[in-house]
Write a structure and sequence with these properties.
Elements: H1 20-55, H2 68-81, H3 86-96
Length: 97
């Protein structure tokens, strides 16, 4: 007759100790493997980013050009909002003229 559950015949002693120490060892081992996996993924993704940036350097050619008159309008708007004071406004206005 077949028995279910614990039986001396099927008991195999394990290498690890029982109880709390076993839990700590298992968590440490799994933590180490997860740490290695995260490091590997970060390493691979950083290599891909470096290759991507080397092939396609970022340039300002895709940005729209702003006309010089627009700069003065932006400075006037910032002064009206109170982001800059009168002396900064005068300096920027003189620089843009």
């Amino acid at each position: 007759m077949r028995s279910f559950g614990y039986s001396q015949m099927y008991y195999h002693p394990s290498f690890w100790p029982d109880g709390f120490l076993s839990l700590i060892i298992n968590v440490a081992i799994w933590g180490f493997f997860i740490f290695l996996a995260v490091k590997l993924v970060r390493h691979i993704s950083s290599q891909k980013n470096d290759e991507c940036c080397a092939e396609n350097p970022i340039s300002d050619s895709h940005l729209p050009e702003i006309k010089p008159e627009k700069y003065l309008d932006i400075v006037k708007e910032r002064y009206a909002k109170g982001e800059i004071n009168k002396t900064e406004f005068e300096e920027l206005k003189k620089d843009l003229s």
